Amino acid sequence: MAMPADTNAAGDIFGGWVLSQMDLAGGIAAGQRALGRVVTISVDRMTFIRPVQVGDVLCVYCSIPTVGRTSMKVAIEAWALRHRHGGREKVTDATFTFVAVDDTGRPRPVPPLDAEG
Ligand SMILES: CC(C)(COP(=O)(O)OP(=O)(O)OC[C@H]1O[C@@H](n2cnc3c(N)ncnc32)[C@H](O)[C@@H]1OP(=O)(O)O)[C@@H](O)C(=O)NCCC(=O)NCCS
């Protein structure tokens, strides 16, 4: 939920807060796909279509359309659920790229989909 601490001096939610929630969500999705540690390597262009206000719940949806050798492109959409239970409006979307890394932070191959057994 967007809280007063996430606002700028004018009372609007920082775009960086939204980006950070998307990075967190994408990191969870990529980490689940890669079965381990991942890092964000890039974020494509973002446009903020609608504002987020205090009391809105930010809903973040992820899908992974592309998996490379060590990288994954995660398509991420952020929607604002107005005042916790109102209508939903799309706020922004972006493609984040995550890289699976080993314990030393070096790229490692993303395991095949059935690697979990
Ligand atoms: C991610 C990191 C380990 C990659 O190291 P690297 O030596 O550049 O690795 P590589 O050149 O082997 O590239 C790894 C993968 O990233 C992809 N990649 C490299 N640069 C990229 C870019 N700018 N955008 C998207 N993907 C990129 C490569 O295509 C490769 O993917 P593939 O294996 O699926 O083909 C290194 O750049 C890093 O540690 N970056 C900092 C990450 C971080 O701290 N993020 C949080 C910032 S606060």
Automatic annotation (TrEMBL):
It comes from the Bacteria. It holds the Pfam family 4HBT. Keywords: Hydrolase. GO terms for molecular function: long-chain fatty acyl-CoA hydrolase activity. Transmembrane segments: none annotated. Belongs to the acyl coenzyme A hydrolase family. PANTHER family: ACYL COENZYME A THIOESTER HYDROLASE, ACYL-COA THIOESTER HYDROLASE YCIA. This is Acyl-CoA thioesterase. It comes from Stappia taiwanensis.
